Amino acid sequence: MLRYYLRLSLKSLRRTPGLTALMVCAIALGIAACIVTLTVYHAMSGNPIWWKNNVLYAVTMDSWGADEPHDPQHPTLAPPQLTYTDATALLRSSIPQRKAIMTQMDGMLSGAPGQTVPMQALTRATTKDFFAMFDVPFEYGGAWGGNDLDALPEIVLGKRANDTLFGGTDSVGRTILWNNNRFRVVGVLRDWQPLPRFYDVVDGAFEPPEDAYVPFSWITTLRSVPSGNMDCHTSVAISNYQQLLGSECVWIEMWAQLPSAARRERFRAYVDSYWAAQRRAGRFPRPLNNHLTNVSQWLQVNGVVSSDSRILLRVAFAFLAVCLLNTVGILLTKFLRGAPIVGVRRALGASRRQIFLQHLVEVAVVSIAGGVLGLALGAAGLVGVRAIYAQDSAYGLLAHFDPLGVAWALALAALSTLAAGFYPAWSIGRLPPAGYLRGR
Amino acid sequence: MMSLNVRPVLSALFRNRTGAILVALEIAIALAVMVNAAWIIAQRIQQMERPAGFDVRDTFAIGVAALTSRSDLGAAQREDLAYLRSLPGVIAAAATSSVPLSGYGQGGSISQRPGPRAPSVDERSMQVDESALAALGIRVIAGRAFSATDIQPLSHDIFAGAPAALITQSLARKLFPDGNALGKPIYGGDNNTPMTVVGITNDFMGSVWGSPSYYTVLYPQTPGSFGDYFCLVRTQPGKTEALMRTAQRHLAISNPDRVVIVAQTLEYYHRRLAAENRAVVIFLTLVTALILSVTCLGIFGLTTFNVSTRTRQIGTMRAVGARKRDVVAHFLIENAIVLAIGGLAGCTLALGVGYWLSDQYQLPRLDLRYLAFGLVTLAVIGQLAAWQPARRAAAIPPSVATRTV
Fold this sequence. Notes:
The complex is a heterodimer. Chain A is an alpha+beta fold. Chain A folds into two domains: 2-45 and 306-437, no CATH class; 50-301, no CATH class. Helix content of chain A is 48%, strand content 14%. In chain A, helix 2 (17-44) packs across helix 12 (352-388), helix 2 runs antiparallel to helix 13 (403-430) and helix 10 (307-337) packs parallel to helix 13 (403-430). Chain A starts with a helix and ends with a helix. By secondary structure, chain B is of the alpha+beta class. In chain B, 51% of the residues lie in helices and 18% in strands. Chain B has ten helices and eleven strands. Chain B has helices at 2-15, 17-48, 73-86, 132-136, 169-175, 240-254, 266-309, 311-319, 324-361, 368-394, and strands at residues 59-66, 90-96, 106-111, 120-128, 140-143, 164-168, 185-187, 194-201, 216-220, 228-235, 258-265. In chain B, strand 7 and strand 8 form a beta hairpin. In chain B, helix 2 (17-48) runs antiparallel to helix 7 and helix 9 packs antiparallel against helix 10. Chain B is elongated. Classes of the chains: A alpha+beta, B alpha+beta.
């Protein structure tokens, strides 16, 4: 029966090639626009560590000055980063299962065998739990050991750095110079690029991955100035490194792994009591405003998804709606034109259901053709988006056609056209046959 | 005459109301999207057209960072600048602490009074030497530029104030709304040491992050407090790319104590700044054009269908004395009614979307002239789309009325 309906519908579609092409193209364009915007939106709004969403918490504390909030547009938020004083104090707590403080550094790697020119290496200075806490995959070796703020001069290399410096071989145990200081390689990462880079959205959620990871205590030992964002509110001049560490400038991100509500509450109490003690000592003029924020909320409050991508997504869906309305209109008129034939078929014994199904098959043919063409157009559109963003580092990566995107697009195509075709097929099936037979 | 025509049109319209409703809905959505998209596009183009304020063409930047604790960035800078100035084709070379538009740099707040509670303005600052204005092509409007004797030695105090400053015209007006900024003290950094405004420059953008702004301050100081500095090099037209590669190759090996971290033309940063806006403009223009075409096709389809199903009635109309142009008018009036209903719904929708956008995304409120313009555009294009099928209807001969199908 289905094959017969299919033959009928192909015949009917061939009778009006112009209308058929119009319907298929309209559906394809609408779907392509949705695919492009959905893919970018999906990648932006993704949670790259969803399986630990309610386990990992960003730790923030309102250490800002009395005059105005850190972000006057969002007065309820604490600064997204901590001062050195507070970060290292909170790091001493044993309540979190794991915890890490981190900041961004400019680094240079040199001294690899046969290396002539130093390699610029975006570096994360952090503490040892970073890797286990964020499920960072290792190709060789592992994280450094020791205590959080007393680690040996050991370094973890990103995949790109290891490929460049050691040809991708196991470099664990080798010595390398980071900013001209000797570090021993203890681990090499696999390809790892969480998008968005949730753990440091302040320095860019869509930045390329780090090339090197060094123990936090070494940047203070080496007196290296961080290259990431540093916000200061006090009017005290900083003229040496020690003053920077003691200052009210915020420049350190902190994350804690708090798997249970009880642990979370205990850590919150710990943070608050630390805050209260510091306030008594004359710091923190602002009211109590400490937060433990999980990953998805963190991405949200920091506005990682650009408002542009939200607006474009909605425009694309409005466009798809217009395309579908158009298709409904065309199908309706087309089916009504065929009403006399339907009348004959009904008179010869076809049931309403059969007429409905026959027309629905025709709709399905149009929708599949539109969906496939839309998928191709969408893929082309994504190439276009990548070309527009080509100069813009990892941002272009967002426009990659992922399998989930294809599934989304197919579901969207099938759903939307069936929704569009349902009403015309239903209304033609409902027509009384007699009216169209009269006078023949 | 009009009233005579409208009644049969209305009854005809009512017979195929589903089709008419669908097209009216299409028109409504198309109008709402078109008007708001045009509004957003206008804002973005305005943003993209804001001039950088300096010569974006023919200038490149080379960033250099200290590799070893031994490195004397001040000496390295002098050496690098001497080399760059010796290259044939180089017009000017300067050392700065950041590159305008690059997204990396320093900023703070600046005030016309000392003390932590004085009202202040957020600014982006750069430490520069005396050649920076020439390298960037920035003009001094009032006062004077920095001379070599103004330039303070390299300091590792990242908040070190300088005794003098150059500020942009906008910043001068903002800080001193009712007076001349020239020669006045301003306070930044530690907020207690005065710096004298020795000159006012034309507006230009500093190292942008967040939204671009013209509030820029230049300090006469040898850059390097953060362990890096940038050489800005102005070249003769057309030689930028080649000279940048030459300089990059040379500087990479000329001094083992410091390394080249970046080499980029300012044109690149300028392009990158506009990339996001450009993407939005391209997408919105494309989708708006497509929505309009699809809507026109819908109008065309509806009128064509109406003409083809009413062949006999049209024949009868003609047979009882209707002229060709009466038939055309019949279909155009019918289309106009659909357009009016869709347009009315579209206006409500457009205003609602506009309100929602300004509420949700801090966009300025929709300019009503855009709505009026959109309405007129849609009406004209909509009537043009119905024109061809209406003409075809007029061509139907009166004899059709007597024929059986």
